[in-house]
Amino acid sequence: MSSAPPSTEARPHMVALAATLVQAGAIRTTEWARVFGDVPRHVFVPRWFEQETNDKGIAVWREHHSTATPDDLAAVYRDLTLVIALDPDTAEQVDTDAWTGIPTSSSTLPSLMAGMLEDLDLTEGCRVLEIGTGTGYNAALLSARLGEHLVYSVDIDPALVLAAQERLSTAGYTPQLVPGDGTLGYPTGETFDRIIATCSVPAIPAAWIEQSKPGTVIVSDIALGIEGGIVRLEVDETGHAAGRFTATSGRFMAARTDARTYPARQRPPLLPETTTRPTAVTAADIREHYPFRLLLAFHLPEAELVYHRDAAGALSLQIQGPDGSWGRTPLAGDDTELVTCGGDPALWGQVENAWRWWNTAGRPAHDRFAYARKTDGSAYVRYIPDGTRWNLPARG
């Protein structure tokens, strides 16, 4: 492949991206507007995969290169997440430049990155730890804002770290990058003023607290099962981290402990069908309302949301618990106001209880909920207006 286009060719796209993020409200300060207009994203995303259906009707990931055409260069500067790596255990090449498979790494949606960076509330001299180096683009943005000597980054995939180092060098930055499990913090044990994670974790890891100071801000995606979201927390002198779900919303791929792939998830067998009955909560209600899905995760912290396809090919939204109980409701057809349950029907009763609570409370947005990690590692969520609280199980 040819080298990255000169900055004069990319400059209009860089400036346009910054303007788009300002207009969208993701960028709120002049410092970050300058940084996004100065750091070339195409250098960090020379190749990406875009999902499409090929001529055989198969959903594939089509490979693109930022230097291939002017349209491809422009595409890198859209406000879109760009998949940069596929799980080698599931990836299968089905065409010259197309694969099936599960994504394992991406260049994050720029508006999400901008919102999280703004939520860090950086000041001059802040030492920042980034969990999930990925392409290196976020580390470049931080380096341009603070100075590379204050930026540290860790990623589980040594190949990604090496590639990111090369791209950062091309762009003129040399932050401190190392391969490793980011949930264990930075391997040399420094403490940081800010920690930002571009992967999701089920709970704030103890190592991040240990590498914090009183006043350290942590911005991370917390995955709570059915749903999750971005939290901004401040750590006090006891190691208690408290804050709230931010107005910035978005989700990240889960943190991995293996550099190449995700482990297969072990699930209990589904219990036999027990009942079908009317329900006030439809699949559309759950799919269309992110704050309600988040609330469901508070009510059912051990459950997960999946899609179920029956023998006739009809799709339903299904919530299933850790004991194999489940409840599903169709996405389309004449029975969308019915739920079919297996095992304990009280599981779907919890869904309906959460729906009633959310509607009675006036359908509050996700940023009306606080999140805290206690010093013993357990966590809880609180509805800010009236203090209603949900305790969350300790998670690894």
From TrEMBL:
Membrane-crossing segments per the record: none
The keyword RNA-binding belongs to this UniProt entry's keyword annotation: no
Biological processes per GO annotation: methylation
Annotated signal peptide: none
Protein keywords: Cytoplasm, Methyltransferase, S-adenosyl-L-methionine, Transferase
Localization: Cytoplasm
GO molecular function terms noted in the UniProt entry: protein-L-isoaspartate (D-aspartate) O-methyltransferase activity
Top-level taxon in the UniProt lineage: Bacteria
Record flagged with keyword Secreted: no
CDD domains in the cross-refs: AdoMet_MTases
Predominant localisation class: cytoplasm
Protein name, per record: Protein-L-isoaspartate O-methyltransferase
Annotated source species: Streptomyces laurentii
